[in-house]
Amino acid sequence: MRYYIIAGEASGDLHGSNLIKAIKAKDKDAVIQCWGGDLMQAAGGHLVKHYRSLAFMGLVEVVLNLPTILKNIQFCKKDIEQFNPDVFIGIDYPGFNLRIASWAKEQKYKVIYFIAPQVWAWKENRVPKMRTSIDRLLCILPFEKKYFKERWNWDVDYIGHPLMQVLATQQSLPHPLPALQQQKMIALLPGSRKQEIEKMLPLMLSVVQDFPNEQFAVAQAPGLADDWFASQISNAPNVHIVKNNTYALLNHSKAAMVTSGTATLETALLNVPEVVCYKGNPVTLFLAKWFIKIKFIALVNLIMDKEVVKELIQENLTPKNLVTALQDLLSNQSKQLQIKIDYATLKDILTTGNNASEVAADIIMEELKK
């Protein structure tokens, strides 16, 4: 069978790589063409475009880069037609993938969506179009199946969170950080895109001077040039860089400052107390306030439906507030204990006993047999 898969960011590349491995284990003749990153390529996908060229965040940024995005959409459609897959698989990245999914369905391709768009948070008006263009919607958060059934009368598949599978594998591996073995770290996770790193990392670095007895290390995401990343911390020479080894860093950390996204959930599942940070384009955030329907932005808090970890968003994300929040994490023992208790509950909620990639691959095979 022939599979065309699109992931538009680092987390999608990670989950896409495990999906490719699961597909290849079930279909020895699988031919896979993909948009993603190094991990999907290493897993056996033929990489058409790297997510580095696709990462545009926020409404304003999308508008400014609209010609490039439209060009990518047209290129993608032509590439799919030439490849002629048996199935199109979109992995998250809804602004792009939902457009391609709708077109692909019109062209009579089978459409599977792996990692459902977070329409329960905003852009709920996407759902009617999703229902007509997606053959199977695969959800990774436990409340999503109920949401789609009760709100839209749509039976979707809850497959469990693929991070549980990733972390189970990672926990069994050695995590050497030879240069950083003196003491437990404070980890800085500023994101995976240049745009968010340039905004978030200076704020995170601003607190370093307030903790002279602590050791800080920043996680360098895959796909970022070493010289460029080093330039981002040139004013903080005592901060270490850990490249492509975020789990090792978190396993060696006692606290973390994390940009909102999948990394907040990874940090929680590795039992590291964290402060969740987010600062976006003011225009984008102003417009988003009219549409966003959720109380929290951190996945940990959303799944638990309460503030497990501190969120510092937009105007509240200041060096002073970061220092206060980090001091609280480091010195408040009762808070540390409560976070660990909540993290244990979070793991119980997300543990299904299934391998999400295996379940997704089974559903894909099932659909292809129809």
What would your notes on this structure say?
With 370 residues, this protein is α/β, with parallel strands linked by helices. The protein is 48% helix and 17% strand. It contains 17 helices and 13 strands. The strands form 2 sheets. Strands 3-2-1-4-5-6-7 form a 7-stranded parallel beta sheet, with helices on both faces. The protein has a 6-stranded parallel beta sheet with strand order 10-9-8-11-12-13, sandwiched between helices. Strand 4, helix 5 and strand 5 form a beta-alpha-beta unit. It is globular and about 60 Å long. The model has no long low-confidence stretch (mean pLDDT 89).
Could you outline the blueprint of secondary structure elements for this entry?
Layout: E1 2-7, H1 10-26, E2 31-36, H2 38-42, E3 46-50, H3 59-64, H4 66-83, E4 87-91, H5 94-106, E5 110-114, H6 127-133, E6 136-139, H7 144-152, E7 157-158, H8 162-171, E8 185-189, H9 194-205, E9 215-220, H10 226-232, E10 240-243, H11 246-251, E11 253-259, H12 262-269, E12 274-278, H13 282-288, H14 299-304, E13 310-313, H15 319-331, H16 333-350, H17 356-369
Parallel strand pairs: 1-2, 1-4, 2-3, 4-5, 5-6, 6-7, 8-9, 8-11, 9-10, 11-12, 12-13
Helix pairs in contact: 1-17, 4-5, 5-6
Question: In a few lines, what is going on in this structure?
Answer:
With 370 residues, this protein is an alpha/beta fold.
